[in-house]
Backbone:
């Protein structure tokens, strides 16, 4: 239902084998993280400015930059590297084929989204949804909807290259409220890429979806629960 | 002229590693990014009490001096007024409370570090952290919540009350315990 162009593994030529650990694999030595302006991120933090003691979920993996920035604002942070968890649960075979396995899906959801309802006041989702096959994505969206409180904001990224066989995989680090630092962790074939319409359908249970134009290949989206 | 062979021209993207991973990812080496990378500490410094990598302890550990753990620990670890270092071979499934915690190995459990916690490259920590300050090196894996506890002036970490005196009770030890002073 959410798919814009879901690529079945055989269509895109995926290879069997364990995926690499995605923890902390950053840009090659000497290559500085790419800095980019982020109006979406700025808007996300402006929505929670003036409040403190909120609980935010960051799914890009723990980093000094994100932890420092968010805790300096007086918020509590829950950090997880969702790509690493995906690799851990669905690696060791055909990544997207294994995502169709219901037992593995349950394991993944228990490892990454086992929170009481309304636990989070904001979520930094980044681009992780693009690496989930539709059956898994549908369950993740269900959990995500449940664990954010009404009125909470989600910041997500979607790649623009609709015909790309693989997209850049990054660790997303917060430079300041309007600047993102992208540290490369390689390239990866996405399960699907989303048009604006597909993004709206994906978040159809949410109050609003706002898109932000950018000069690079990433679309920024802020969603309000 | 127009159909010149391009076989020996360099490709735009880096070559795949020798053992290609699934999903056609190319994962590149990890450099330092934000937190300075300190040299790995493979051995405990002189004068620090240490539990070696072949030791298994199930129970409660209480230390009134700096402590280095490199074994397999299940239970609780309390080093209320000193530094606890979790070595690169350590596998802890334990609740931890210390003034300062340095993590180089694996921890599964909640950590309370009144002053600061330092999670080094290649460390793996799954659990909730409550601390006065945190350092996370790139390459570390952390999953859990982070609560920064501010002091009354808003900057200094909260001071812990003096701990109740309890003795360490290692319930099971499968090998010799190293102690260095």
Residues:
């Amino acid at each position: 239902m959410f798919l814009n162009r879901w690529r079945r593994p055989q269509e895109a030529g995926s290879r069997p084998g364990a995926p690499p650990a995605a923890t902390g694999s950053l840009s090659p030595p000497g290559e500085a993280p790419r800095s980019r302006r982020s109006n979406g991120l700025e808007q996300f933090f402006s929505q929670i400015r003036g409040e403190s003691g909120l609980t935010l979920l960051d799914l890009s993996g723990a980093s000094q930059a994100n932890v420092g920035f968010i805790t300096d604002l007086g918020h509590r942070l829950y950090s997880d590297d969702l790509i690493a968890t995906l690799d851990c649960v669905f690696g060791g075979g055909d990544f997207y084929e294994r995502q169709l396995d219901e037992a593995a899906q349950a394991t993944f959801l228990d490892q990454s989204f086992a929170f009481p309802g309304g636990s989070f006041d904001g979520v930094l989702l980044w681009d992780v949804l693009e690496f989930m096959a539709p059956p898994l994505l549908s369950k993740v969206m269900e959990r995500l909807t449940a664990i954010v409180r009404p009125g909470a904001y989600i910041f997500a990224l979607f790649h623009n290259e609709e015909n790309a066989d693989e997209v850049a995989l990054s660790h997303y680090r917060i430079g300041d409220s309007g600047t993102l630092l992208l540290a490369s962790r390689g390239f990866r074939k996405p399960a699907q890429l989303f048009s604006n319409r597909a993004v709206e359908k994906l978040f159809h249970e949410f109050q609003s979806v706002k898109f932000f134009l950018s000069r690079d290949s990433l679309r920024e989206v802020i969603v309000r629960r | 002229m127009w159909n010149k062979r391009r076989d020996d021209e360099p490709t735009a993207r880096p070559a795949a590693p020798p053992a290609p991973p699934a999903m056609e990812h190319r994962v590149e080496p990890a450099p330092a990014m934000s937190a300075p990378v300190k040299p790995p500490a493979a051995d405990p410094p002189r004068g620090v009490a240490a539990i070696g990598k072949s030791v298994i302890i199930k129970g409660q550990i209480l230390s009134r001096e700096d402590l280095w753990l490199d074994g397999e620990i299940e239970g609780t670890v309390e080093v209320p007024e000193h530094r606890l270092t979790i070595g690169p071979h350590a596998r802890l499934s334990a609740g931890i409370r210390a003034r300062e915690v340095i993590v180089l190995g694996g921890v599964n459990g909640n950590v309370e570090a009144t002053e600061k916690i330092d999670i080094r490259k290649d460390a793996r920590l799954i659990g909730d952290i409550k601390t006065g300050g945190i350092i996370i090196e790139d390459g570390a894996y952390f999953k859990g919540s982070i609560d920064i506890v501010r002091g009354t002036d808003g900057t200094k970490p909260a001071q812990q009350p003096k701990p109740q005196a309890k003795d360490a009770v290692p319930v099971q030890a499968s090998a010799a315990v190293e102690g260095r002073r």
About this structure: Residues 1-35, 156-181 of chain B have pLDDT under 50 and may be disordered. Residues 46-170 of chain B form one domain.
